[in-house]
Amino acid sequence: MSKALCHCRACCRARGMTPVQLLTVPVPNFKVTKGDVKVTGSPLGSMTHAFCRDCGTHIFQCPAGATFRALYPTT
Fold first, then answer.
1. Average pLDDT, integer, range 3-31
2. C-alpha distances in angstroms, 65 versus 27, 41, 42, 51, 61?
3. Mean pLDDT of all residues in the chain?
4. Any idea what DSSP says for residue 9?
């Protein structure tokens, strides 16, 4: 896991601020242990977003095809 500050438009729009603090977790180390996740792509296909199907909480986002999941430490 590593920490990052992101200034990209997708992150800034998702959180309503800039920069956005992120924790990146390699895909093999990331697992949702409870609930049902809805994974969607952005309109341009450049980003992947995941939300909880029950409450709508944003779980992660990352560039399409990335080898990591970007999490918000406050989620």
1. 86
2. 10, 11, 13, 17, 11
3. 87
4. H
CA distances in angstroms from 35 to 12, 31, 50, listed in the order given: 26, 11, 12
Note whether 49 and 61 are within 8 A (CB).
yes
Position 75 scores a pLDDT of: 61
- CB-based contact 22:2 (threshold 8 Å): no
Tokens 């992660």 belong to 60
Strands 2-6 and 20-26: antiparallel
**pTM here?**
0.77
Provide Rg for the chain, Cα atoms.
12
CA gap 9, 20 in Å, rounded: 10
